[in-house]
Amino acid sequence: MTDLQTLLKQSAALHNHLCPRQVLGVRMGLAAGRYLGIEVPQSDKRIFTIVETDGCATDGVAVAVNCWVGRRSMYVFDFGKVAATFVDTHTGRAVRIVPSAQSRQLAQQYAPEAESRWHGYLLGYQRMPDDELLTIQEVSLTVSVQSLISRDGYRVNCDICGEEIINEREIRREGLTLCRACAGARYYALPDEATAAVRTVSACLDALEDILRE
Ligand SMILES: [Zn+2]
Ligand SMILES: [Zn+2]
User: The domain 4-148: what is its CATH number?
Assistant: First the structure.
């Protein structure tokens, strides 16, 4: 097993600095390996990790377990929580790990020499034992890891925008194959749509003026 300090160096290199949440992420990943009885960082994709935030903690988890969004061994459900569930894909066992409720207070006690609260977290999180730092719970998943991973090489095209959709993320509606954007979950407007909206509003105002003039 790679030791904490080596993993923290790797995480910091990726992240340009070391911060308390990366330490939490690395500690969570190491604890997951111990709990599931799998050596981490793994050399294959046996562990699939679902993280509940992006950012610093996620980098720590990724380095410790060797799970990456880009390698499709990590998935983000963005609940804005420093939390992660580690799934042993061979057995289906899953363990969710979060920093314990008292981890913030306790960290300071483990780093009495720290010059600030931030440094207290940075050092304390490295020194605390697992059972004080983390809450570790075996869980059963309500989503299928297989559906999150999907199939290699699968692709279809959206019947409305024509764009390619991979990983079975399409939606079937009334015989049509739709991307999520065309099915209504779009988070952007196209330039001509913005102009069209302005035109609609000014046409309404013109009509209103006409009515008022009459
Ligand atoms: Zn950071
Ligand atoms: Zn579409």
Answer: 3.30.1330.130
